[in-house]
Specification:
The structure holds 2 protein chains of 2 kinds. Chain A is built from 10 helices and 10 strands. By secondary structure, chain A is an alpha/beta fold. The longest helix of chain B has about 30 residues. In chain B, strands 1-2 form a two-stranded antiparallel sheet. Chain B has one domain: Orthogonal Bundle (ABC transporter involved in vitamin B12 uptake, BtuC), CATH 1.10.3470.
Chain lengths: ~260, ~300
């Protein structure tokens, strides 16, 4: 059951079609296809090494699949490129937190505005004129995100010094700063305690509700997954096992076998 | 005994007896140190943004100075020669990114370091092939006579050099701390993948960093070239930047400046007051000894980010 109750979604924003990816002899993804609809929260689940992170890396262009296509906002591509993806409204967080450790929370989130700032190099180098005004506008936007995520108290702290849970929140903030249309979250709640997980779940749902952001997330905590997602894709050994609503997936025999193990006779 | 006196007693007596002379030496040393800082600055910029120690920085200093002098010799007015050299340095940076760096994305830093060694030889040779290898005189009309100020003699040229270095550092500091590109530069230095994920184009950023390092090299080339003449030994000036970097930390712009000042002042004072005890020529090795001491006791430098390694 979804926390949102009955929900309706828009058109397909992202379609992954028959994607295969291998590293040398290791098949990370094999003929994966699925769709994400506008406004949906889609969870990708599966045991360790199932290819979940690889899937996100294909979507935002870090990995280039050997086969298949990715259709994003009506445009079909063999592969995405990271900074194009960013410009097209795809933002993401990482499993192992990839923040700019030497920079403050504020500066980290400001980098998320990177694709939104356009004033030319000349004004920027002088730090005056239109570039300065632009900087201030973006600063305001970022302050709103900081309020939203309740991290005012660590605005000026270098993120390398923050505890893990807060770093995850800052990373989410940086992704939100890009005003993403598609947000990819790689294990946003890994390593968190119950309270932190609840906070993070609330932020994810709020983002989805308030801004209509489409979200694809990877998560291990089944309670969380069943609570917040509208749709679940299950991967195992690079193959897709199931694809459906949380309830359908929960009762799927293949999924149960993959998670609990099955006796082979 | 005599040796110990020469180290621990006589220099201090001398300083006490001629305080003005001491101040003059300190000041002269500080101003010379600014020149070291200028070279060190180029290293810091590239190290900050790509984690690469750019061995070719010295060659870039020489190349910039050679190009400038060469153009002036071909009858360009100074302002036009300056602008053209700036354009050449920017083009050079873009070429380096395209031909060298782009092929080496995601390689170990040591591989990139070796590439810059190759680059350094190429630039040395290329510059001298284009403009010849004679010692050239660079004269931009900066006055070079000492002036007296409150009874202290100061070289005007050194003052100009210090002022240019100060301006350069101020501009760079603002550029790094306050602008989008500066933030992108720092982001790239911290984490390539995360930088890509927020849409920072790695290639553009690298080209910009190398261009800025090239321009800093040009300023250093002008200052050193005016002082020593434009010639091959300019590349060796870069060696003096190494102890400056070790003192100041590889990642800190203020560190490069203060490191340069300490080294410049230290070696002048050591040479003048302690030189006799060691038979002179302290200036040649003082900086390296100081750097060695720092490596032993504070390897991250005065301002560098503390290295914490989880084992």
């Amino acid at each position: 059951m979804s926390a949102h109750g009955e929900r309706t979604f828009g058109d397909v924003v992202l379609r992954v079609d028959d994607v295969s990816l291998s590293f040398g002899g290791v098949q990370a993804l094999a003929n994966i296809s699925f769709e994400v609809r506008d406004g949906q929260v889609l969870a990708i689940i599966g045991p360790n090494g199932a290819g979940k992170s690889s899937m996100l890396n294909v979507i935002n262009g870090f990995y280039h699949p050997q086969q298949g296509t990715i259709t994003y906002k009506g445009e079909t591509r063999r592969q995405m490129k990271p900074h194009h993806a960013a410009r097209q409204g795809v933002a993401r967080t990482f499993q192992n937190i990839a923040l700019f450790k030497g920079m403050s929370t504020l500066d980290n989130i400001m980098t998320g505005r990177n694709t939104k700032m356009h004033k030319n190099l000349f004004w920027q180098a002088l730090h005056m004129g239109p570039a300065r005004k632009e900087e201030l506008e973006h600063r305001e936007f970022v302050e709103n995100i900081i309020d939203f995520l309740e991290i005012e108290h660590i605005r000026k702290t270098p993120v390398g010094r923050l505890p893990y849970g807060l770093q995850k929140r800052v990373e989410l903030g940086r992704a939100l700063a890009a005003e993403p249309e598609l947000l990819l979250l790689d294990e946003p709640m890994a390593g968190m305690n119950l309270e932190e997980k609840e906070d993070m779940s609330r932020y994810v749902l709020d983002v989805n509700d308030e801004f209509g952001t489409t979200i694809v997330l990877i998560e291990h905590d089944m309670g969380v997954v069943m609570d917040i997602s509208d749709h679940v894709v299950v991967l195992d050994y690079g193959r897709k096992l199931a694809d459906g609503s949380p309830d359908e997936v929960r009762t799927n025999q293949l999924v149960i076998d993959a998670y609990l193990g099955v006796a082979h006779d | 005994m005599e040796f110990l006196t020469a180290i621990f007693v006589s220099p201090f007596i001398e300083i006490y007896e001629y305080p003005l002379f001491f101040i003059e030496v300190v000041l002269g040393g500080l101003l010379a140190g600014v020149m070291y800082s200028l070279v060190a600055l180029g290293f810091v910029l590239i190290f900050k943004a790509s984690g690469v120690f750019n061995f070719a920085q010295g060659a870039m200093v020489l190349f910039a100075a050679l190009t400038l002098v060469g153009l002036i010799e071909h009858g360009f007015p100074i302002w036009l020669a300056l602008i053209s050299t700036i354009i050449v340095m920017i083009a050079l940076a873009m070429a380096i990114e395209k031909v060298v760096l782009r092929k080496l994305v995601n390689q170990e830093p040591i591989i990139l370091f070796m590439a810059t060694i190759g680059l350094s030889y190429f630039l040395d040779g290329f510059g001298q092939t284009l403009w010849g290898s004679d010692v050239k005189v660079l004269d931009l009309g900066i006055p070079n006579a000492p002036i007296e100020f409150l009874g202290i003699l100061v070289n005007q040229f050194d003052l100009v050099a210090a002022a240019s270095a100060g301006t350069l550092v101020a501009v760079l500091a603002i550029f790094f701390q306050k602008t989008r590109i500066g933030r992108a530069l720092r982001a790239v230095a911290d984490d390539h993948q995360a930088a890509l994920s927020v849409g920072i184009p790695l290639k553009t950023i690298w080209a910009i960093v190398w261009a800025v390092a090239g321009l800093v090299g040009l300023v250093a080339g002008i200052m050193w070239g005016t002082k020593l003449g434009v010639q091959f030994t300019l590349t060796l000036v870069a060696l003096k930047a190494l102890p400056v970097l070790i003192l100041g930390g590889f990642t800190s712009i203020p560190g490069a400046i203060i490191g340069g000042l300490i080294i410049g002042m230290g070696e002048k004072v050591a040479e003048v007051f302690w030189g006799a005890a060691f038979g002179g020529a302290i200036e040649d090795w003082f900086a390296y000894m100081l750097a060695l001491a720092f490596l032993l006791f504070r390897p991250q430098g005065l301002f560098g980010e503390k290295i914490i390694e989880r084992v």
